[in-house]
Amino acid sequence: MPNQKILYITTEMFPYQEDTNMATVVNKMALKMHNEGNDVRVFMPRFGQISERKFQLHEVIRLSGMNIIINDLDQPLIIKVASLPGERLQVYFIDNEEYFKRKEYYFDEKGVPFTDNDERAIFFARGVIETIKKLNWVPDVIHLNGWMSSFVPIYLKTYYESDTYFKDAKIVLSLYNEKEADLDKNIGEKLKFDNILGLKALDNPTIKSFVIESMNYVDAVVKGDEFLDEDLNKGFIETNTPKFEYLDVDSINKLY
């Protein structure tokens, strides 16, 4: 069904990341929907490994300049944009010196998770939501990919609950096998600052527990990887949210 406004929120997308299933799937989904006549936008973090020169990223001044308060600190939000190489599909990048300049994604060179991964996810989620509102572009479908994206529906259904901007948008969550890591034990205090309380994931805050939590805040859950690890699959089986087994890219529009 063309003429839909489809927002992809992702942590990975080819060619900015290579050799992962998620990056490939998001690229193919977005391009397929774009080429079928839908209005498609993609949002992702501007990780330090993404070359601004190679991919011709440039800052969007009218969208940048906002501050997002994380853990009682003002963090400036920088928005960059690029066209997917060879395509007329716009990709927006959420950037911030403190959170995304480093060259690694979630783990340092020794494999230790960054202590501020939770703040980076909160900043990313709120940055996407605020920027979409500033664009004055209301999506019909929001499709989430990658663990950081799982903070978006949690915020939309709590902190932004009284905001009618996204009230008609349907939210789809794709599940992928991602490397597990603990999140900061004080994440509850940071979310409490935004009046977000009572999440089950706070009992044991990890990357996976927040993905599983977010299944309760979306309209549909779909397997992004054909076979999920034990915990994710258990969450998938137990959720009361409408769910779909793995769909190939050619079938994704059936979901929408």
Structure characterization notes:
This protein has nine helices and ten strands. It has 256 residues and is of the alpha/beta class. The chain has a single domain (5-255), classed as 3-Layer(aba) Sandwich (Rossmann fold). Strands 1, 2, 3, 4, 5, 6, 7, 8, 9 and 10 form a ten-stranded mixed beta sheet that branches. It is globular and about 45 Å long. Strand 9 (220-223), helix 8 (230-238) and strand 10 (243-244) form a beta-alpha-beta unit. The chain starts with a strand and ends with a helix.
Q: What is the CATH third-level topology name?
A: Rossmann fold
Tell the overall outline: globular
Low-pLDDT ranges:
none
| Structural class by secondary-structure content | alpha/beta
Could you state the CATH homologous superfamily? Glycogen Phosphorylase B
Major sheet: 10 strands, mixed
Q: What is the mean predicted local confidence, pLDDT? A: 95
Please tally the β strands and state the result.
Answer: 10
CATH architecture term: 3-Layer(aba) Sandwich
Radius of gyration: 17 Å
- State the domain count: 1
Distance between the termini: 8 Å
What letter string, H or E per element, gives the SSE order?
A: EHEHEEEEHHEHEHHEHEH
Catalytic activity: [(1->4)-alpha-D-glucosyl](n) + ADP-alpha-D-glucose = [(1->4)-alpha-D-glucosyl](n+1) + ADP + H(+)
EC number: 2.4.1.21
Keywords: Glycosyltransferase, Transferase
Enzyme class: transferase
Keywords summarizing the entry:
alpha/beta; single chain; 29% helix; 10 strands; 256 residues; Rossmann fold; globular
Précis, in short:
With 256 residues, this protein is α/β, with parallel strands linked by helices.
